[in-house]
Please model this.
Amino acid sequence: MSEHRQLPAAPPLPDPPPRPKKRQPTQDEITKARLKFLKEMSKHYITNEENIVAKEMFRLHKYNWPQILVVTAGCEGESDFVTFSSDEVLRVDREFNYQCVLARDRVGRIISIPLDFDIKCRVVSHDKASEKQFIANIIESHSLPVTVKFAVPDNHIFDLGESAHRADSFGCMALLKVYDETYLISNPLIDGVLDPHIIIIPLYLEMLISTVVGAEAMSVKEWEEYTEEVKKDAAKLDFSSVKGRKAMAIYPDIPDEAQDTDIYSYIRPDSYVILREKETGRIPKERINYCEIYKCDKDENVYEEITPSVPPRAPQKKPCSSKSAGPPIPKRDKSSTSTKLPPARSDVSDLTVAELGEKLKLLKLDKYVKKFEKEGIDGSILVEMDQLILKKEFHFKEFEAIKLTKFVQSGHIPS
Model:
């Protein structure tokens, strides 16, 4: 009987090589991917398509902030602070009330002064003036109305529109009543990311805005998570230091029967009054919102103008229309308000209608291109026009007329 031979045991199989571990993305890669997604997401927001102005949006969402808004029709103002472009996205965190006092000056103008105005006044009674006090202190210790007069150092002057006036030229004013001026506090959303720069939105702006309620690239839950994420970013910001305008504002006269405590939040001021030192020609450094707007369509010569000894103003960094004080401005002849442009550059007068249109675009005056084309305005005609014609016939704002005048005079295009 044959014996069966037992085969030797097979050697053990070698262990399979370990699978390579899946590389985890770095935090930097995660952040970049998130930013890329948010950038694409921000191109396709879903809105309620209200297309309403700021004051109507305020009434719609009052006490129901924050809200994300998109500008559907922009507006160009006298400064960056009141200029918004179409498709700009803003997250409004809250409404903000800024206390001011209404006053009436010696020529009947309505003036709004911030309650924390940092210039002292004297209370005037029976032609006698009291000690210097801040306006807030005067209101706290006196019943309104009360007559006051600015107690400004001799080395300061007021800029009113395009002209400068001595510090004592305002004379006496009657402080009438305290009111709240309302603004919206917001931050831009740039490519879906909250920008820490705080912007206050005046309620009188005529731009059109709509509420953003979602994004095409996000589900409802993802959108809610995204808005919570933005809310946490906003919570890191300090909104407590935000203030309204620092300048005095001059408002159009409003009939007594139409006056309301909040009506001035919805009305664009006619002009702003800026205080500066005449030696240095500087405007105080603090520059919250639109305190450097220069605009005045009414007769500016109701106040006594500065003397020829005042040195020229130093150039400012960002005012919308800054001119040298120079010699005193002669009293305006009310029978003729023409402000004929100085001799123009010859190359401006040679511009065709189309070429002038391109220059208007470079000056960010695009909205007047079609009007000029319709009227056949070329360079030769433009140099014969004055600021009065630009404002009356073509509805230029004061600053826009100044900008075009500067171009005609020197070919200057802001860079």
In short: Residues 103 and 175 are 4 Å apart (CA to CA). The chain is about 20% helix and 25% strand. The radius of gyration is 31 Å.
